[in-house]
């Protein structure tokens, strides 16, 4: 990659049939139901391109420092446990799930670019735990370079009201969000 230096590309999820040509023109899709076992991590796209270092005290050129970046965006959703039905996860509406023309030989988040392809879909979030306050926490990984528009119904879930009646709750954004690679967006859903 110039100057005769050795560079190493690390990426996840690993594909055993990857070629040098495909890594420069990669297509990748996220799962529509990310709450299925393994769907969230396999939907993410991580990479780093690095070279052995010689300027770190105590280490010589036999070591390679790897710092993986996210090529996609993440959304974390927090909902009070008593507000959401036990049999439901939030759903993110109207987003594209497939990227194409991604060049993983890009050197950083500022240089990575890709195209969005396919029709908009709904993506079900992964329930990954609870906050310190006891609220349920959910995650979604999705391609960047798309916008979540102010005033549109972006997230829905089955809500349990004070009488114990379950109904669908649709949440709108108070501002437009332009998704960027490597960024995490935090949504706390309230009434």
Account of the protein in words:
The protein has helices at 20-23, 39-43; strands at 8-12, 26-29, 46-50, 69-70, 73-79, 91-95, 98-102, 115-117, 121-124, 126-130, 136-142, 147-148, 153-160, 166-172, 177-178, 184-188. The protein is elongated. Helix content is 5%, strand content 40%. The mean pLDDT is 90. The chain is mostly beta strands. The chain is built from two helices and 16 strands. The strands form five sheets. A four-stranded mixed sheet has the order 10-11-5-16, with no helix packed on it. Strands 9-6-13-14 form a four-stranded antiparallel sheet, with no helix packed on it.
Distance between the termini: 53 Å
Range of helix content = under 10%
Shape: elongated
Averaged pLDDT: 90
Question: Structural class, judged by helices and strands?
Answer: mainly beta
Q: Going across the biggest sheet, name each strand in turn.
A: 10-11-5-16
Number of strands: 16
Please mark out the parts with pLDDT under 50 across 5 or more consecutive residues, or reply none: none
Instruction: State the order of secondary-structure elements, H for helix, E for strand.
Output: EHEHEEEEEEEEEEEEEE
Strand content: 35-45%
Output the radius of gyration: 20 Å
Largest beta sheet, briefly? 4 strands, mixed
Number of helices: 2
